[in-house]
Amino acid sequence: xxxxxxxxxxxxxxxxxxxxxxxxxxxxxxxxxxxxxxxxxxxxxxxxxxxxxxxxxxxxxxxxxxxxxxxxxxxxxxxxxxxxxxxxxxxxxxxxxxxxxxxxxxxxxxxxxxxxxxxxxxxxxxxxxxxxxxxxxxxxxxxxxxxxxxxxxxxxxxxxxxxxxxxxxxxxxxxxxxxxxxxxxxxxxxxxxxxxxxxxxxxxxxxxxxxxxxxxxxxxxxxxxxxxxxxxxxxxxxxxxxxxxxxxxxxxxxxxxxxxxxxxxxxxxxxxxxxxxxxxxxxxxxxxxxxxxxxxxxxxxxxxxxxxxxxxxxxxxxxxxxxxxx
Length: 326
Ligand code: GZL
Prior knowledge:
By secondary structure, this protein is α/β, with parallel strands linked by helices. It has helices at about 10-15, 45-65, 75-90, 105-115, 140-155, 175-190, 205-220, 235-245, 265-270, 285-295, 315-320; strands spanning about 35-40, 65-70, 95, 120, 135-140, 160-170, 195-200, 225-230, 255-260, 275-280, 305, 310-315. α6 links the parallel β6 (about 160-170) and β7. α1 (about 10-15) packs across α10 and α3 (about 75-90) runs parallel beside α4. The radius of gyration is 21 Å and the shape is elongated. The structure holds beta-D-galactofuranose (GZL). Beta-D-galactofuranose (GZL) binds near residues 46, 122 and 232.
C-alpha cells in the first residue's frame, strides 16, 4: 500500500492515478500502490446513512482508493474494533463517522501512535479529543438546529407559550446534541415563549421514533401540542404514522419539522404531513476522497469542512422532490 504519497499531484489527479477499487467489508482488488482507507461507518439506520455509505463507496471506486468498509451497526464497540483492525492492517488513513461524541480517546491515541491520520466523516467527537483527528467533513448540526428554530419562532412566535414534543437522535451523538442546542438557542435568542412537553431519543430510526411518539400520545394526548421537532426523517415519518393512528392530521393538528431531506421526507411534505425540512447532505463521498488524499499527502487542511445544505418550506416541497437523491 502507498505510504509515501506522490507529492506535487493535485488530490484528484493523485487519487485518479491509483489503481484500486473500493470494497464493501473487505479490501478491494486495488493495485499495490493504491491508497488504503479504513472507514468505520455508524451503521445503516436511515436512508441518510445508506446514501452516505453509497456516496463514499462510489467515490472510493472512482478515485482508485482501496476502501475497507465496516458497518458499525450503531455500536461504538464495533467501530473501535474496526479501527484497531485498520491499525493492524497499517491502512494509510482511517475515516470514522463516530456514533457518539465520547469514548474515543484510547483508540484514537493508538492510531496516532501508529502514525495513521484520522479523518472524521459526518459526526464529530468531544473537543477534548480534537488533537486526535486531522479534520471533520460534515454538517454544522448546530446551524441545522438554528434553522429549525428560526422557522418555529416565525411560525409560533406570536404565541406566548407554544408546546413542543422533541424526538432526539441517538443519545450522545453530535447531531442529537447539536440539533437540540441550536434549536432551543434560537428560540431563546428570539425571546419566544415555549414549553418542552417532552423530549426523548428515537435513536434515528423509524421504529423507535414511532414507539416514542405512541408513548407521547398516550401520556399527553395531541390536543395541546403545537409542534413535533424530529431530529431526522425516519423518526419524523414513524411519528407521523403514530399521529395518524391516533386519528389526528400531521402537518395540520400538529406542525412537524424533520431534518435530513430524504425523498420520503419530501413526499410527506408534498402530502401536507411535514411543514419544514432542514437538509442534511449525505452525498459528500467525492469531497471526502479529496480530503483523504490531502491528509495522506501531509497537506494542511481545515479542522472542519462544512458540506453544503439548505432548508425547505411547504411552498418548495413539490419542486424539490424530484431532485432528492436518497
Ligand atoms: C447527520 C447524520 C444523522 C442523520 C440521520 O449527519 O449523522 O445520522 O441525520 C442518521 O438520518 O442516522
